[in-house]
Amino acid sequence: MTKATIVLSDRTDRLETVPRESEVVLDFGDGPFDRKAVDACLRAGFRVRTLLAAIEAPDSGNVAGYAGQGAPAVLLLSRPATVEEALRGAAGLARPHLSVEVPLRGDDDLDVLKVLSSLGVRTRIAVGELRSEGDLVLEAMTDALVRMGRRTAVTPFEEVRAGRLDESFEIASLDFVANDHFVDLRGEDEVPGPGAWDGPDVSRKRVPFLRGRHPCAFCEGLLFCHGYLYDEATVDLCRGRFAEMMELLSAQEAPAGNEEAVPAACCDRGREAGPC
Amino acid sequence: MPNLLVTQKCVRRCPYCFADSYMAGSQGDFLRWDDFIYVLDFYEKSRVPIVSFLGGEPGIHPQVAQMMDYAMMRGFDFRMFTSGILPAATRERIQEVRLRHEKAGRKVTFIVNVNHPDDTPEAQQRIQDEFLAMGGAQASISFNIYRTDFDLDFAFDLIERHGLMPNLRLGLTHPIAKGGEGNVFVPPRDYPAVAARLERFFPRFAKGRVIPGFDCGFPICMFTDAQLGALTRLQATFHWTCGPIVDIGPDLELWPCFPLSHIRGKTLYDFDSLDEVMKYFVDQVKAQRPEGRGIYLECDGCEHRQRGLCSGGCAAYALGEVGP
Hints:
The complex is a heterodimer. By secondary structure, chain A is an alpha/beta fold.
């Protein structure tokens, strides 16, 4: 597995020693979309995996540029948004290649997440939130997986639903701070040598956690987490979260022939491929 | 179709208000976003095509326009039962949302409850007028009859002046079954007098081509055959039979309708579909009204009742300690 490279959109010169044909994540910061940066990567033989950009609110002015181009883009809300802003921005954000990351700081953020998701906007919460305290993540997860109404896919819940039995799926691949999947060149540190792009063997990753009495050995998420979220202080939190997630997924998966159990609408809009 | 109370607060204190008992006992002030999202999910699953806001006065909810916007963005048509007595900024925001969604093919209607000008402070009349002017052809008015000497001329004037929908929705005020202090209502013995009074306005209905629409609780026998004939010519619509409407409180508590608001204790979270809710309330009312009493003694042997054409007036009489 070759890791993807994260680089600032105005510093594509740092990609010089990066393996060609590998994937690049372009970080535009809080700036507008600039096609030149994407074109530079493509010309140099890279594949553009995702664009990252910070937006102040769902209806921010710089959203239009990302909506108007075709590459997958993750837009991170840089401050708490209001439902009103979500309503104003939803139509512009409801594009299959866009995804809005909503930080879960309080109930209002959860409302924003639900409103966007119910209006056709792909949303996501940071993978690290799975080990946070409180009920917000559980509520977001419940809404994403077993609600009655229509929702567009919410990362990482949708990816876990679809890929939890796939040996090659790792939840860390959705997290742009995961060292096993991304080489981050956004800082000013020296660009690492060629070996830095070689990812570890996925099939071996969970082995250390299966030995002895490691808390992750009994976790229902080990198959796709591979201990990525492990932290001695919070292991009970993420383990509990994965147990809840599996319970919700069991509830969501309707018995064959029982079409009433899961509304058709849930299946229509919630199961598209992720943008990154 | 169910009604959703977005708030329990109201700007008026109508003497006949049968929501008053509910308002007094309710806990939540305003519908919250997470509950609203849940309601729309529930509607979506139950294939309810329209979101119907009720109050109190829905316009008091600080985010009424945003909620209206959200409902229509999710593909619902929208209806609001209102007094029209709203701050100008709220009215303008509602209008902006309405026009935007009407362009996209959504249907927006306002049912504005009006009292006689003698019962309405001048300042409220002015604000209500502004709302009706804004609502125009998408607004209709409703009038609750709570005394036998009611006057409807002002209602026809409003319809004409503002180019409103040519409908006049008429409600009979009912007692609140097992209600606390009680409300002002027309006792069933006075229903024929109500019908006779209404007859005086038939020419105005005809002249303005205004269609009378009768809410539930009017028994067939309160009208003479001649009156019924005239009403038929006026294309009146009737709801002679009684069934749960389903009101949803701001805290998602449910009850079948305001006069039967004592049948409580369940919330929307206790059910999976509107069909389940309806069945639950039908069973509840049946259980509490085992002999199927009507509002008159004669209801017992009434042919219309036996044939299911008329429920014998509002069930609140049969369930409460209120006699005719």
